[in-house]
Known about the structure:
CATH class: Alpha Beta
Largest sheet: 8 strands, mixed
Order of helices and strands: EHEEEHEHEEE
Strand order of the largest sheet: 2-3-4-1-5-8-7-6
Distance between the termini: 21 Å
Radius of gyration: 15 Å
Number of strands: 8
Structural class: alpha+beta
Strand content: 35-45%
Number of domains: 1
CATH superfamily: 2,3-Dihydroxybiphenyl 1,2-Dioxygenase, domain 1
Amino acid sequence: MNREFDHIGIAVRDLEQSIHFYTEILGGVLIDRYRSEAKGVESEIAIIHVNDSRIELLLPTNNTTSPIARFIKQKGKGVHHLAYRVDDLEQAIQYLDSQGIRTMKNTLRTNKHGRRLIYLNPADTEGTIIEYCDYPDQNNES
């Protein structure tokens, strides 16, 4: 199974300030900004390309139910997750199951860019939040 780094998700408290830092200081390009009100997601997201890498800035929009809000309360702002692109998400989930790595089934979804994703259980990943994703309707672009 092929896996390659896709993006890094960063939890932020001030989206405008973070966008400024990643575009003006690091030379990135803001390629999209949108709000997700999906239950368990509730966040405003800014996607920035910096050279050949992608960063997703994540600002919680619901301080009660957003997992990003819980993350910031527990750990502060900063790196929230690492995402790896796989060829086929269902096949990757089956492989993880066969290896005893649990996924957080309630996080399985498709975002506005057609990226299907699921998070692995941090208890099985040395505490790191890891996302597996694929792009079934696109040529691996988001």
